């Protein structure tokens, strides 16, 4: 086993940050912490990150509303986690792959969201097909099963000599699954250029983070696999960008003695329910939620941009108006989608069975009779 010096560094890379250390650039009020390095981003990109956070929050609010109206299926809200998703995505190259769970809507916004993404949440698989065009892996619902895929993609890129990094997002509950350990172990052994971003939003559905693990932090788990683990304030977009940027640089061009993978624990809070099928009042109280809202990433980052002279009341109002208009357009376009119901049966079996053929013909007759899919929804 590699020996560590007093700084906690071994000859195989930096170990997890101590449990009392967390990377931050902004304090809770949005002011730069003394001596904290501010990432070297252009004014345009700094403001763009804010716009994407606002768009993500408004999209989230509208999609929750659509689900409550019965116009969309079960949905996983992101409010509170925008900074980690958008900050980490901005640190990637456009052709780096993002492998998500199901709550990373902000990452999709940063990649240029289309109404086709909403189609997935409206029940149309074609929405996943569109994600691939943005170098986002199809969404994963089964907890942690996408982590081995991320490791495999990253390892394959390395074997083929590609300059590609794979960034994998997952919740703290995923760290209790075997797939998490297998993926990180393989990534460490085979030196895969992968980033594992654990969004520690304090709850795996109703199960609090302290019941998930006896480790001091989730980031410290990287020690078992021989690569770096870092804790970052996931409600600080600048800190998340900085940590991810450093991990990406190491994955692309590792310094001597450094392994390519990195485990990033983005410490944040889920303001809303786990999904629209969940009632968080059963396992947490309003006092806890309000305490975390004091670190809401959007007003916190807005204060920073105002102090930099990049935002004022008029510009904030314009950004919010554009977000509302954009989300309205996305919803209109998504709900106007007219699916080819015959295609629903194309891949049910390698060869069409009599039952599948009968079902296809039945639905086709309904459409011909009624002219739209109204009866299909009623059926």
- Order of secondary-structure elements: EEHHEHHHHEHEEEEHEHHHHH
> What is the β-strand count?
9
CATH H-level name of the largest domain... which superfamily?
A: Thiamin diphosphate (ThDP)-binding fold, Pyr/PP domains
CATH topology of the largest domain: Rossmann fold
Structural class assignment? alpha/beta
What fraction of residues sit in β-strands?
5-15%
> What is the general shape?
globular
Amino- and carboxy-terminal Cα gap = 63 Å
How many domains? 2
CATH hierarchy class name of the largest domain: Alpha Beta
Largest sheet: 5 strands, parallel
What is the strand arrangement across the widest sheet? Answer: 3-4-5-9-8
Low-pLDDT segments, ≥5 res: 1-17, 373-379
The DSSP helix count reads 13
Which architecture of the largest domain would the CATH scheme give at its second level?
A: 3-Layer(aba) Sandwich
Report the average pLDDT across residues.
89
Radius of gyration: 22 Å
Question: What level of helicity do the residues show?
Answer: 40-55%
What does the model show?
The structure is a single chain. The protein is α/β, with parallel strands linked by helices and 379 residues long. The chain has two domains: 11-335, Rossmann fold (3-Layer(aba) Sandwich); 341-378, no CATH class. Helices cover 42% and strands 9% of the residues. It is built from 13 helices and nine strands. It has a five-stranded parallel β-sheet with strand order 3-4-5-9-8, with helices on both faces. It is globular. It starts with 8 loop residues before the first strand and ends with a helix.
């Amino acid at each position: 086993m590699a020996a560590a010096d007093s700084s906690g560094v071994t000859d195989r890379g930096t170990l997890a940050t101590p449990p009392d250390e967390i990377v931050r650039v902004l304090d809770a009020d949005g002011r730069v912490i003394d001596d904290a390095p501010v990432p070297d981003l252009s004014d345009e990109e700094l403001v763009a990150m804010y716009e994407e956070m606002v768009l993500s929050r408004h999209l989230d609010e509208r999609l929750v509303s659509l689900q409550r109206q019965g116009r969309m299926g079960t949905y996983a809200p992101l409010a509170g986690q925008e900074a980690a998703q958008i900050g980490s995505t901005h640190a990637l190259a456009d052709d780096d792959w993002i492998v998500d769970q199901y709550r990373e809507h902000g990452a999709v916004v940063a990649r240029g969201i289309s109404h086709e993404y909403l189609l997935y949440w409206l029940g149309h698989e074609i929405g996943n097909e569109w994600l691939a065009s943005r170098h986002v892996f199809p969404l994963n619902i089964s907890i942690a099963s996408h982590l081995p895929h991320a490791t495999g993609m990253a390892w394959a890129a390395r074997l083929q000599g590609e300059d590609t990094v794979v960034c994998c997002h997952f919740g703290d509950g995923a760290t209790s699954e075997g797939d998490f350990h297998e993926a990180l172990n393989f990534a460490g052994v085979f030196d895969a250029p992968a980033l594992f971003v654990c969004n520690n939003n304090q709850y795996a559905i109703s199960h609090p983070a302290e019941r998930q693990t006896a480790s001091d932090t989730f980031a410290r788990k990287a020690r078992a696999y021989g690569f770096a683990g870092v804790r970052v304030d996931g409600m600080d977009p600048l800190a998340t960008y900085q940590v991810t940027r450093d991990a990406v640089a190491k994955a692309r061009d590792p310094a001597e003695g450094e392994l390519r993978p990195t485990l990033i624990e983005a410490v944040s809070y889920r303001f809303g329910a786990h999904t629209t099928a969940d009632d968080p009042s059963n396992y947490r109280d309003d006092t806890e939620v309000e305490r975390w809202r004091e670190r809401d990433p959007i007003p916190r980052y807005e204060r920073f941009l105002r102090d930099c002279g990049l935002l004022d009341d008029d510009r904030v109002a314009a950004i919010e108006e554009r977000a509302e208009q954009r989300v309205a357009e996305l919803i209109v376009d998504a709900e106007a989608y007219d699916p080819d119901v015959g295609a629903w049966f194309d891949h049910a079996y390698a060869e069409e069975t009599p039952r599948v053929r009968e079902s296809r013909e039945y639905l086709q007759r309904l459409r011909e009779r009624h002219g739209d899919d109204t009866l299909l929804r009623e059926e």
